[in-house]
Amino acid sequence: MSGDNSYCPMSGATCSYDSLEVEPNSFFLIQPFDEEKSKREKAVDKALEKFYGKGKYKLKKSDSLIHFQGSYCDICKKIRSCQYCIADMTGEIFKVITETEIKDKAFWRPNVAFELGLAYGLSKPSLVLFKKLLDDHKVPSDIDFVRYIDIRAKNWPMVSQKILDRLKECAPNRAILKANNWNEFDIDQFKKELESVIHQKESYIRTKYMKLKINQILYKNSRLIFIIVNARDLMEGSYFSLYISENNIEEKKGLIRIDSINREKGVAQAEIDVGIYRDYWTDIAKICSEKGNFVLGEHRLEVIIPHELEKLDIDEQKSLVSLLNKIGG
């Protein structure tokens, strides 16, 4: 019996899909077949479209419930040919009858458990979704190391935004993991993003407590443009979460990306990823169109450092930039 990824439990021999080519920007969605299925698929699809662009990614799904004799090969083929997986490991609630009581208990869906295990076995990086169904409902202990996306509220547009945020956090790490095939990536763009992260980490204490102020918002060429003051220490490509306080309640309203900086004047220009708050920013755009600009009230900008790169120290990141310089010529 083979002990590597080429082994097929169906045939007991080498898997016929072992040499299957992996499609770039492709995802396999591991999910339960429940009443939320179509909403879940739409939320994931929307996040991927915003991240990659329309038609620049592929989302693969199981077509039916798992029946090992009929669907195993189809599942295996799709997971082997995808680059990443997204799994909803929430599970479902059943009534459990004991000698003394009848109580609700949450169980993991068998098809989700099997497919996620297969994905990990085939070395596929996976984003995990999880919703707590009962007070004692937790991520299974054997994979409690997973940093999952909380989908507690049945608000799939919000889940879509959370998936998009995680994709943005993990994007540099994906490039690092695929360092043996740099041709798949825009090296110059990745290097620029990495240098931006290095700059943010080196100036993190300063930027974390800076009183960055959005002086005004303009609407030009169908884009909302933010003018930020006190931005001399920032760098192009940096990301900030924008929080706005309304009626003493602070709420996130999207992600700000710094596009250009005038260091002499200490002013930056930025654009926003509106996420699920499109209606809010549509109203702001209308005000800008009518009045020429809009001055934002109380707000807060919180610097974002990609989660995986945050684990690397400055020297490791600078070494990676040097490697990129050599590869890029």
List the helices and strands and how they pair.
Elements: E1 26-30, H1 37-52, E2 58-61, H2 68-81, E3 84-88, E4 92-97, E5 102-107, H3 110-121, E6 126-130, E7 149-150, H4 156-177, H5 187-202, H6 204-208, E8 213-220, E9 223-229, E10 239-246, E11 249-262, E12 267-273, H7 278-291, E13 299-304, H8 307-310, H9 314-328
Parallel strand pairs: 1-2, 1-3, 3-6, 6-7
Antiparallel strand pairs: 4-5, 8-9, 9-12, 10-11, 10-13, 11-12
Helix pairs in contact: 1-4, 5-9
In short:
The protein has 329 residues and is an alpha/beta fold.
Named at the architecture level, the CATH assignment of the largest domain is 3-Layer(aba) Sandwich
Task: Catalogue the unreliable spans.
Answer: 65-69, 172-184
Instruction: Tell me the helix content.
Output: 25-40%
Tell me the name of the CATH class of the largest domain: Alpha Beta
- Mind telling me the CATH superfamily name of the largest domain? Toll/interleukin-1 receptor homology (TIR) domain
State mean pLDDT (0 to 100 scale): 78
Beta-strand level of the residues, as a percent range? 25-35%
| Biggest sheet descriptor | 6 strands, antiparallel
- Separation, N- and C-terminal Cα atoms: 45 Å
The whole-angstrom Rg is 23 Å
How many domains make up the coordinates? 2
CATH-defined topology of the largest domain: Rossmann fold
Briefly note the structural class of the backbone. Answer: alpha/beta
Strand order of the largest sheet: 8-9-12-11-10-13
The SSE string, one letter per element, is EHEHEEEHEEHHHEEEEEHEHH
Per DSSP E runs of 2 or more residues, the count of β-strands stands at 13
Shape: globular
